[in-house]
Amino acid sequence: MSPLYELIGAIAGCCTTFAFLPQVLQTWRSRSTRDISLAMYSVLCSGLVLWTAYGFMIGSASIVAANVLTLLLALSILTMKLVWERRGSLPAPEAPAPAN
Predict the structure, then answer these.
(1) Residue 51's domain is classified under what CATH number?
(2) I want to staple 48 with a disulfide (CB 3.0 to 4.6 A). Which of 14, 54, 71, 96 is the partner?
């Protein structure tokens, strides 16, 4: 595979992977997964596993790395959703802060 293709893939992978980071941090801070779709994250994680397998099959390090990292982030959200819902420990939504 061309080095240029791998570079473009690596940059694209960074963009899509790091797009999940704010959601993971927000979910962790708020301890709320109330508005997160279990079905969506389940399907997303399945797709990421398949993309990773595809990356291995075609020998693309950028596809493998991006999808493994994104899978870890998505699985962390999915795990928080499953654990917190099972415990029944989802907090009530916070009221918005007053405007200054």
Answers:
(1) 1.20.1280.290
(2) 71
